[in-house]
Amino acid sequence: MALEFHRTLPKGYTLPKLPDGTTAPGTSLLCRRMFIGGVRIDHQGGPWADCQPVTGTDDPQAAGGMGLWGFHDKGLSGTRLMVSNPEADVAYGVVSLSDGTQVKATTATVPGTTYRAWAAPIPNGQTITTVDQYDTHHHRLSHDTNWR
């Protein structure tokens, strides 16, 4: 996975419409480019799939989300990626799998911004038992058991 930041809205990108008919706010664009086996997840969605409009280099709306991504069944089967856009104090995530293995993923940042993410590969046939996030002092900040 790679984070891609556009300081201004790229040519060809149109801000999405909100349910109330207004245009979503944003002056910049933040994209998560996720790949499995060299193929970009959601490539069929076009060049701006997995991108979100943000305002400048420090938009708090870009943090706090987590998701499971893959090619099949909305990320519920096959090889997948667990991706987090964590809060500023998260240094890394640990995904525990049903076979007892743990996958550690270090948070990466976009230089000059507050945008950050980590991604952990989930092998085909494995079930996620927990997802934990830690700070730089190895204190657990979150513990989630709602993923498969």
Describe the fold and architecture.
The chain is built from no helices and 13 strands. It is an all-beta fold and 148 residues long. A 4-stranded antiparallel β-sheet has the order 6-7-11-10, with no helix packed on it. Strands 9-8-12-13 form a 4-stranded antiparallel β-sheet, with no helix packed on it. The radius of gyration is 16 Å and the shape is globular. The two termini are 20 Å apart.
Largest sheet: 4 strands, antiparallel
Q: Give the mean pLDDT.
A: 92
Structural class: mainly beta
Order of helices and strands: EEEEEEEEEEEEE
As a whole number of angstroms, the C-alpha radius of gyration is 16 Å
Share in helix: under 10%
**Oligomeric state:** single chain
Number of strands: 13
In short:
With 148 residues, the chain is mainly β.
Blueprint of the fold:
Layout lengths: L1 E5 L21 E6 L1 E2 L2 E2 L10 E4 L10 E8 L4 E9 L6 E6 L4 E5 L1 E2 L6 E7 L5 E7 L5 E5 L4
Antiparallel strand pairs: 1-2, 2-5, 3-4, 6-7, 7-11, 8-9, 8-12, 10-11, 12-13
What key attributes describe this structure?
148 residues, 4-stranded antiparallel β-sheet, 13 strands, mainly beta
